[in-house]
Amino acid sequence: MFVQLYNTLTRKKEQVEKPLVRIYSCGPTVYNYAHIGNFRSYIFADILNRTLKLAGYSVEHAMNLTDVDDKTIKGALSLVQENPQKFANLKEALLAYTKPYTEAFFDDLKTLNVTRFDHHPRATEHIPAMLDLVERLIKVGVAYEQDGSVYYRISEKKDYGKLSKIDLDKNKTGTRYNTDEYDKDDIRDFVLWKAESKDGVHWHSNHGDGRPGWHLECSAMIHEIFKGGIDIHTGGVDLIFPHHENEIAQSEAAYGGSFVKLWAHCEHLLVDNRKMSKSLGNFYTLRDLLAQGKKAEVLRYFLLSAHYSQKVNFSEDALHQAEMGVEKFYSLWQKLERFKRHSAEASSTLKTASEGARLSFLTQMADDLNTPRALAVVHEYMREANIFLDSVGMSIAQDDWDEIHKTLLYFDTVLGLIALIPKTEISAEYIKLLDERNAARAAKDFARADAIRDELLEAGYKILDTKTGSHLEKL
Ligand SMILES: [Zn+2]
């Protein structure tokens, strides 16, 4: 099946071509812990990746880490102020400042079961590619040097503004912006390479010591990783201008050809109907929420439950809804595990319903990642499966069991909830029984081993035999 995705550039839904899809997603600036709004954007990238694979595409996916920009440099300077003797230079302090946030970012992705992508490039590891891009832009005549910094002259790019549809009448070409972030009302030439004194975070360049501008980083890394243009570029809507607009300007002018076929942007997350901000006191990192007792699987479900193109409101009520959704899914999954299986003939009705549900789920996901509709398919299927299970007592035909199991797993390739089932503490009594069962098996006393297995099942535990040993899983 082909996936259709809304393209911010053309303002319409477009088909993603097969078989290989190269994706670049703007990742975090590692100056702080990522907040729940950031995770909306990362889960969006995750869902896109998973859906494409489910629909039969090959995916090569990169998500960068911005470890040098105005904010991380400010953080590094604060470390040096606290302890001037500790660092030989600011570059070392920059690394020390960003490292814990980089590790926290990967831990948080794991907590929410977000796919680890093929590439997670860090800006500081691609400085030569960035310098090469600066030189190319000067050579083609769209960039100029001023006081050791290099700027992009936006009046040289005739279609500048095509992504964000900004009002170019406000264009102040020839006047410059030296900061990485600025807003739509102030469109000026933007900085590609920023002069830095020897005491600042710097690399050597033809223009003296300096460091890359934020926008330049993504353009250079995309070119270096993918050796050309990409199929899909994702990010939050707040990145459309100026970040993505500037990426287009740089990459198209320097490398020629098509840069990005399809731009996909994910909307904001509001907290209690207001934009998240530190001053309003409604700014939550994932860690804050977990410390408050919120569950990772509920947060993931919540972030999936709204369409990515719509603003979503984070509230206790919405989380409660998400929790009910997760519980229904887990409860069916765990109920299924408790069923005994026999070899009777399978139900053709269940088979047809399961095949239909899998196809409908994929159809909804392939239609611009329509997660609310896909979740509606999941809930309707769970309702039918529960009715079926209630009708057969505690024993089910193996083929019927397989059909339900396969369908839930199919949904989960996108939902990613099963891996987040909370692990509960297992009492010593059951661990002792597991040891006795393993001893019985080793002694080839299979009757005793099976009897213990059944006893554990009665108590609500399933034995998982793996290469690293046997474990108990709560049903
Ligand atoms: Zn970016």
The helicity comes to: 40-55%
Principal-axis shape:
elongated
CATH class of the largest domain: Alpha Beta
- CATH homology group of the largest domain: HUPs
Structural class of the secondary elements?
Answer: alpha/beta
Number of helices: 14
Which CATH architecture of the largest domain would you pick? 3-Layer(aba) Sandwich
What's the CATH topology label of the largest domain? Rossmann fold
Task: Profile the largest sheet.
Answer: 5 strands, mixed
Beta-strand share of residues: 15-25%
Detail the poorly predicted runs.
none
Bound small molecules, by name, code or SMILES, are: zinc ion
Radius of gyration: 26 Å
* Quaternary organization: single chain
Whole-number total of structural domains: 3
Mean pLDDT: 92
CA distance, first residue to last residue: 35 Å
